[in-house]
Amino acid sequence: MKDYKYKLQDAIISLESLLDDGINIESYYQEYFENNPIVFNVLGYSNYFPFTKNSEMELPRDEYSNLKPEPDFVVQRKDGLFEIFEIKTPCSKKMLIDSNKYRERFTAEIISYISQVCTYADYFIYPGNRQAILEKFNLSIQEIVDVKIIIGRAEVADTEKIHKLCRKQTNKIDIITYDDILKILIDEYSNTYSYYENLPGISCHMILRFPENKNRNKGYIFESGESINKNRISLFLNEKSELIFRVIDNNSKECEVSFDLNPDYVGNWIYLLFEFGIQQIGFCMSASVNGLEKHIIIKDSKISIGKIFQNLILGSDIDINNFGIFDLSFFLSLNRTLDFREKRNQLDFLTKELIVDDTKTYMTFNGAQYMTRDSLGDLVQNDPAFRPLVGNYKIEK
Fold this sequence. Notes:
Layout: H1 2-20, H2 26-35, H3 38-42, E1 45-50, E2 73-77, E3 82-87, E4 96-97, E5 105-106, H4 108-123, H5 127-137, E6 146-150, H6 159-166, E7 173-176, H7 178-192, E8 200-209, E9 219-225, E10 232-237, E11 242-248, E12 254-260, E13 270-278, E14 283-289, E15 292-299, E16 313-314, E17 325-336, H8 340-355, E18 363-366, E19 371-373, E20 379-380, E21 389-390, E22 393-394
Parallel strand pairs: 3-6, 6-7
Antiparallel strand pairs: 1-2, 2-3, 4-5, 8-13, 8-17, 9-10, 9-16, 10-11, 11-12, 13-14, 14-15, 16-19, 17-18, 18-21, 19-20, 21-22
Helix pairs in contact: 1-7
């Protein structure tokens, strides 16, 4: 389920990027569908077979007409029937000539595309071609094959008129815009996952590094809250090298997510994201490392929290007892969970600007340093004895 979620996010963001950048090269969109097969699943297909130049798959040549069709994809519906799935560019040109409502018609360019795919579809009418495909690819394709043409943007497409003109064709043809596909993908994501996004609660972002060959007994990264047993939020490493994100609500109810601090995370900068979101009938919590969700819980149980960040301690618990050992180059706390685009933007920024560049600006907590949040929201430490290091220098107030 996690893989499906991330693949769907990638498909949405990748298509948005292509369209926003105004890419109008057909091969880019062929590659998009090849690299994001989840799109075919969301569109209702159980299988897909690429016949693009990159795929190295070729349909057998028709021995009578000498035709060797080159559809972009042949897709299989969930009922077992096959369709041609043809990719064109999201050109900004009009698709219809409709200045005279009695003589509405497709433009010459669209007619050319339709003629091309109809020729491809006619190829499957002949039993010899279908038999050759069966022997070569083990695909039993039916005689009459429907066609989907992916082209254009919604802003230049009159859906009703296009549908009407498509139905006048000999073959069953549907023209789908890239905005249609994007909307289907976004609706799929929204219906499945957006219920857990952009909620009131907590979102904590950190770039940190756990040093190698250090005693990593229980130590706190940060803690905040009113008291020990209510309205408290904690992030700490326990004796089993599990990183635990815990919330204690206004009624002393505890909930937490965690994951093992495996060797891949030790000695390297990692991006940690912990979220806690409050819904009408419950709450959700999650822990992610480098953009990948490690643990999520969803509970149909009411929960309430107060001003949980009013007493933030970085590097220790709120009693200034259990100190952590780590390097920190970024810390951000928000009062809501993020949607997936915000998370992706944050991940891209932090990994490119901080992790990749191996930033020289970071604080070192060696098990005896901590900082508190002042009235302006800044993290400070006035006592030099407890002030963390920045590189080889003491941090200034």
